[in-house]
Specification:
Layout lengths: L5 E2 L2 E2 L7 E3 L10 H11 L1 E4 L5 H17 L25 H9 L2 H7 L2 H11 L3 E3 L4 E5 L5 E4 L2 H4 L6 E7 L10 E4 L6 H5 L6 H4 L8 H8 L3 E3 L7 E4 L5 E3 L10 E10 L20 E3 L15 E4 L5 E2 L14
Parallel strand pairs: 3-10
Antiparallel strand pairs: 1-2, 4-11, 5-13, 6-13, 7-12, 8-11, 8-13, 9-10, 9-12, 14-15, 15-16
Helix pairs in contact: 1-5, 2-4
């Protein structure tokens, strides 16, 4: 029996009126107008097997091998199992160089730039799809998850013709940290008139309310998720509220996935995430999720401060920065 589903340590209700499974929109791939209509109506589309599994698994091996160098993955077990390591190589590592290497790996790029993915995203954008310069590969360690949020306040300083893709880089069951979206949230007036008018950097946004039942009752209908397989893709709008379950995988296995964002050709993308000289949330940080939980105050659940040599500087419990590494 799988462990109970939790988000941020809080159980999520799984009765039929509160929880369900994502509908597979694969039959609509041959009906561009129908697929676009589904996306507008639901705020998301879930597509089984959109990507070649071998492409996804090659990216998985590439990324996990790099994390094994830091001790994040235990290489005494098969690399593809993603068993968590002791992180012994993380102290003193140049995380600026490391994260750049992960984001620009050839096999990882093959996932982000897959022709069928770009074609499908283009259908939803009603124009040619262009990936944001920045990409978000994400290792989720045992016990970690991701708080509830919408992407709009983080990505929407320019065009509104853009969207997010979440791609599992391996099998991910819900209890292993699967992504969960709140059905109906893309049309929620409370979000549209409040949270979605914010700019994450300027307004200092943290995660939304942590209790999944409070979030559900305030902003949408049912939580939706799936047993994700290599090749699956979940595409959602900037106003779709989502998060991830806590990772309770057996054998202390890490979850590996990627977020990527795309905009319509001819539009002006958010400068925080595009161009040759990126400095998201300030130039002293790198995208390195986890290693603690601070309700994402100052973005610290996902973005870590590094020193001039790229070495990790972890936040203290009171949100001040400190250099002590957690055991």
């Amino acid at each position: 029996m799988n462990p109970p589903l939790t988000t941020g340590g809080r159980p999520i209700g799984t009765s039929d009126d509160r929880f369900g499974r994502l509908d597979d929109a694969t039959p609509l791939r041959s009906d561009p107008a129908g697929l676009r209509r589904r996306f507008v109506e639901r705020g998301h589309v879930f597509l089984r097997g959109l990507l070649p599994p071998e492409t996804v698994l090659a990216a998985r091996e590439e990324i996990l091998t790099k994390y094994a160098v830091l001790g994040e993955i235990d290489d005494r077990s098969p690399i593809m199992d993603g068993v968590a390591g002791d992180r012994s190589g993380l102290v003193g590592a140049n995380l600026r160089a490391f994260t750049h290497s992960v984001r620009t790996g050839a096999h990882y790029e093959s996932v982000i730039l897959d022709p069928e993915l770009l074609r499908t995203v283009g259908v939803l954008l009603d124009g040619d799809a262009v990936p944001f310069s920045f990409r978000w590969p994400r290792l989720v360690r045992p016990g970690e998850g991701c708080g509830f949020h919408c992407d709009g306040p983080y990505m929407s300083r320019a065009t509104t013709r853009h969207l997010s893709c979440w791609i599992p880089l391996g099998h991910i069951a819900p209890h292993e940290g699967g992504l969960v979206v709140l059905d109906g949230s893309h049309d929620n007036h409370r979000l549209a008139e409040g949270y979605l008018t914010k700019d994450a950097d300027l307004d200092g946004l943290e995660w939304l309310e942590a209790d999944p039942e409070v979030v559900r009752s305030n902003y949408g209908d049912r939580w939706l998720t799936a047993d994700y397989e290599p090749g699956d893709v979940l595409i959602f709008s900037m106003s779709t509220l989502h998060g991830a379950f806590d990772n309770h995988a057996d054998r202390d296995r890490c979850r590996l996935s990627t977020d990527s964002r795309y905009y319509a050709a001819g539009e002006t993308p958010d400068p925080r995430w595009n161009g040759d000289d990126l400095a998201p949330h300030g130039g002293e940080r790198v995208f390195y999720p986890g290693l603690g939980s601070w309700a994402n105050a100052d973005f610290q659940d996902e973005w870590k401060y590094v020193d001039e040599h790229g070495r990790l500087v972890l936040p203290a419990s009171d949100h001040d920065t400190g250099s002590e590494f957690p055991s």
